[in-house]
Specification:
With about 280 residues, this protein is mainly alpha-helical. About 80% of the residues lie in helices and about 0% in strands. The chain contains twelve helices and two strands. The protein has a two-stranded antiparallel sheet with strand order 1-2.
């Protein structure tokens, strides 16, 4: 046991340096304000007041949440059928379908997003096809549509794999029992498969919503800098404006929102598990 604890020390140091220390720095910067004299640093809530008193920043936050929610809903609607088909496939077909989902994740996300810029631009593949049938060109790049498409494409594998894992862990004999009791395929899906896959859906929602709400380079590339989300504001405060205090305050606000969303999804997951136990 002592040997295992010794082996954990390097990871503890690594976590402290790369996670705990940066979070502490963000916390310090968020609650401090630099005076006219650079050496003068004072405790202040001014950074938070600046954010919540400015309608522009609140509108950006609202837009970011709406985009993240829309992305998550689309990923659930598209990801669940895909995961269901993969879970019910057999042999090599299942392996090939899993590879089709996972192979894009082997490529850097930035490269994949650049590829979508070429697909959605005015002279891109989609508009070229539409032009052949006398439609277009349709403005798609630098719109909310392009941002949502980019986020769905990049994050949907996380949704599919989480739901697929839940479906494969399900006891198939439960479906046989439902059939023996007179349930048709739709009833068996709604009363057995769907409830048992909810933990996977909840995990998928968490893995999609969290990066979607804080993403900055997808809206920057596909939105063309005209479609600003909260991640872009944070990036701008750190890299362009040089206001680390305000940028840290926004980051802390987003961290709180993310923790609240994680708490809600955890409570929902626990509630589903308790209901499942009661039904049994």
């Amino acid at each position: 046991m002592k040997q295992f604890r010794t082996m954990a020390y390097p990871y503890i140091v690594w976590i402290c340096l790369l996670i705990v220390l940066p979070m502490l720095l963000i916390l310090v910067y968020a609650f401090t304000k630099t005076g006219n004299d650079v050496a003068t640093i004072k405790f202040s809530f001014e950074n938070f007041g600046k954010f919540f008193s400015d309608a522009i920043f609140l509108d950006v936050l609202r837009r970011s949440l709406l985009i993240a929610i829309a992305t998550t809903i689309i990923c659930v609607l598209l990801g669940y059928p895909a995961a269901y088909i993969i879970a019910n496939a057999e042999g090599r077909k299942k392996v090939m379908l899993i590879l089709l989902v996972t192979i894009p994740t082997w490529i850097n996300m930035l490269v994949r997003t650049y590829a979508w810029m070429g697909i959605l631009q005015d002279d891109g593949i989609i508009n070229t096809i539409l032009g052949l049938i006398g439609i277009g060109p349709v403005k798609m790049l630098h719109t909310s549509f392009a941002v949502i498409v980019g986020m769905v494409y990049n994050f949907i594998p996380f949704m599919i794999l989480q739901i697929y894992t839940s479906l494969t862990k399900m006891d198939k004999s439960l479906l046989e029992a439902a059939s023996d009791l007179g349930a048709n395929k739709v009833q068996a899906f709604l009363r057995v498969t769907l409830p048992l896959s909810i933990p996977g859906v909840i995990s998928g929602i968490t893995l999609v919503f969290l990066p979607a709400v804080s993403s900055f380079f997808i809206p920057k590339l596909l939105g063309g800098g005209q479609y600003v989300l909260i991640g872009n504001v944070i990036e701008n405060q750190f890299l362009t404006a040089g206001d680390w205090n305000f940028g840290s305050a926004i980051s802390l606000i987003m961290a709180v929102i993310i923790m609240i969303s994680m708490y809600i999804t955890k409570k929902i997951d626990k509630g589903e598990a308790m209901e499942g136990g009661d039904k049994k």
